[in-house]
Amino acid sequence: MAKYTIDPSHSQASFTVRHMMISNVRGEFQKLSGTVEFDPANVGATKISADLEVVSLSTGDEKRDAHLRSADFFDAEKHATITFRSKSAEAKGAGEIEVRGDLTIHGVTKEVVLAVEGPTAPAKDPWGNERIGASAATKIKRTDFGLVWNVALEAGGILVGEDVKIALDVSLIKG
After folding, report:
1. Cα–Cα distance between 141 and 165 in angstroms, integer?
2. Any idea what the CATH number is for the domain that residue 34 is in?
3. Owning domain of residue 156
């Protein structure tokens, strides 16, 4: 079993949510950390631990970002970190792994399933580090995690969609 550390400079944790029932708004958490324990001969023993700093949230609009960090949404002062801790992993095909684990957002923990592509074959970087990469995705209902703020629109519908797509693209360094 090899242990890898997320390289935050070459990794991304992003989300997508419907805005005004018209278009999607995308954002990312610019500060992430974590570890992955992985053995290609025993995928079921995979362990993942990841942390996202809520204050690093960015959608490209500072006013919206401040609102998302406020008590109306993530409440970053009380809940500074979003965490994921894996509980099980299962190979689903060549280069595909299903990882079940506990996702904690806004102080609420729910089990989610990450659909993982990868990891890639190990490769050496220019500094001699062994690296692997992987991508993962899931979809959650934000209200399940206590993110319930919304506004009804005059024409019908709501300002912020219920479903949130989460995507992770990580570069992992062995050791």
Report:
1. 9
2. 2.40.128.110
3. 2-174
Distance CA 164, CA 139 (A): 6
Segments in the chain forming alpha helices (H): 62-69
Q: Per-residue pLDDT tens for 103-122? A: 999 999 999 999 999 999 99
- State how far the Cα of 132 lies from the Cα of 4, in Å rounded to an integer: 8
What one-character-per-residue DSSP string does 14-25 give? EEEEEETTTEEE
Instruction: Output the CA angle 67-13-96, nearest 5 degrees.
Output: 145
Phi, psi for 142 (deg, rounded to 5): -60, -35
pTM: 0.91
- Quick: pLDDT tens for 18-54: 887 778 989 999 999 999 999 988 999 999 999 999 9
**How open is the CA angle 120-124-127, to the nearest 5 degrees?**
140
Tally of domains in the chain: 1
pLDDT, tens digit, 9 for 90 and up, residues 58-99: 999 999 999 999 999 999 999 999 999 999 999 998 889 999
